[in-house]
Specification:
Elements lengths: L5 H11 L2 E5 L6 H10 L5 E4 L3 H6 L3 H6 L5 E5 L7 H14 L6 E6 L2 H11 L4 E5 L5 H4 L5 H11 L3 H4 L4 H22 L6 H13 L3 E2 L2 H8 L3 H13 L3 E4 L15 E4 L2 H7 L5 H5 L4 H16 L4 E6 L5 E7 L5 E6 L9 H10 L3 E5 L6 E3 L3 E4 L1 H11 L1
Parallel strand pairs: 1-4, 1-5, 2-3, 3-4, 11-12, 12-14
Antiparallel strand pairs: 6-8, 7-8, 9-10, 10-11, 13-14
Length: 393
């Protein structure tokens, strides 16, 4: 098992809050992480709420929770029983009144919007949230593995069973099955009635347009549905943590800013599976290669700084930067992403950096050791950049 960067953070949150929500897409490793935590907590209980047997144990949830005081209770796929949140609030408050500060609930879920809404309404002040993404480069690669290791993670993506497959062919087969299962089983179980073929076409179109500005009317015309419906479908994919809307930078610089968000399929391996790209050669020969690499790096860096405000910057006059990270200490870093071993930046990058008041300028590319170039820009690979950003945040 790979060590997850979230493991120590999860332990700290459980020591501080009576309940913690661990969010992440299916198959990202939430249950594996929860089992590791259970092994360190004798007496901890685990219930998978997709199983009828587990749901029957919670026919009277208040009685069940009160029957297991001072135990870590892990509830997997908790969004399937939303009524539990109000019960948990009462149990937590009762234990607090009784002086039991050690009550702990770990709630696992794969639908972020649903869970965050439920937990914020019912457990305000009693719950912390933590996102577990698929594997990041800092978790599975060593600093000396170089470009080959980063390329392998880029091609396969970070879902554990995809990354650890014995061959590229088996990795692709797993991702194709993952996509089919999501479309035909997981999404219908959440309630919305969406034709699987329509959602697959939309998901594939987003992969083809990886990292482009969102144009709902164009997508709607291609799918023969309304723009409002397209927006609702994308909302669902974002809620399932499969797609990211990266907002445009919203500061006031007196210039005509592009306001539409960029849209990324979050896992690069899923991008390649949707497009039928099995290995590095197939990816590099496809027009999506540059944008796929950009999306891969964006996920690495945002995951390294979950507390930073992430956006992109673009004006109608050509000033542009791929990623703006605004940290809590007031610093603003700008990141340009290139799929080239000899990367350069345009004049628009310098203009964008000046507009947002950047305190640090980074150019991420598939290179070995970091090195500086003119204009105060630091060139580095994704692994180095993510470690640097994590240290800053």
């Amino acid at each position: 098992m790979y060590d997850r960067l979230s493991q120590s953070i999860l332990g700290e949150l459980l020591a501080q809050f009576p309940a913690v929500v661990l969010l992440g897409p299916r198959q990202a490793g939430k249950t594996t992480l929860a089992f590791a935590l259970r092994d360190k907590n004798p007496g901890a209980l685990y219930l998978d709420l997709e199983l009828p047997s587990a749901q029957r144990q919670l026919d009277d949830p208040e009685a069940f929770f009160l029957a297991h005081p001072k135990q870590l209770v892990i509830l997997d796929e908790v969004q399937r029983l939303p009524e539990l949140f109000s019960v948990l609030r009462g149990v937590i408050d009762q234990r607090r009144r009784d002086g039991e500060a050690s009550c702990q609930f770990l709630l696992l879920g794969s639908a972020s919007g649903i869970l965050l809404k439920q937990s914020s309404e019912s457990l305000a002040g009693r719950v912390a949230q933590l996102e577990l993404t698929p594997f990041q480069a800092r978790e599975v690669l060593l600093a000396d593995e170089g470009t080959n290791g980063v390329n392998a993670l880029w091609v396969r993506g970070g879902f554990p069973l995809s990354w650890m497959a014995v061959s590229d062919a088996q990795s692709l087969s797993w991702r194709e099955a993952f996509i089919t299962t999501y479309l035909e089983k997981d999404i219908p179980m959440l309630g919305p009635r969406i034709p699987a073929t329509t959602l697959r076409r939309l998901w594939t179109m987003l992969a083809h347009n990886q990292g482009e500005l969102l144009d709902q009317s164009k997508l709607a015309a291609a799918l023969a549905i309304s723009g409002q419906t397209v927006g609702r479908y994308i909302d669902l994919l974002c809620d399932l943590m499969l797609v990211r809307r990266l907002p445009a930078w919203s500061g006031n610089v007196g210039k005509r800013l592009i306001r539409a968000p960029k849209v990324y399929v979050r896992d690069s391996g899923i991008v390649h599976a949707l497009l039928g790209l099995q290995d590095l050669d197939a990816v590099l020969s496809h027009p999506v290669a540059g944008n796929s690499w950009e999306g891969f790096v964006v996920e690495q860096l945002i995951s390294a700084a979950p507390q930073a405000q992430a956006s992109f910057y673009r004006t109608s006059h050509g000033a542009e930067v791929d990623l703006v990270l605004e940290f809590r200490n007031g610093q603003t870093w700008v990141v340009e992403i290139k799929r080239s071993s000899a990367p350069t930046v345009s004049k628009g990058f310098y203009l964008a950096a000046d507009d947002v008041g950047a305190s640090r300028k980074i150019l991420v590319a598939p290179v070995g050791d970091a090195f500086p170039i003119k204009g105060g820009i630091e060139v580095m690979n994704p692994l180095t950049a993510a470690a640097l950003i994590a240290a800053q945040s």
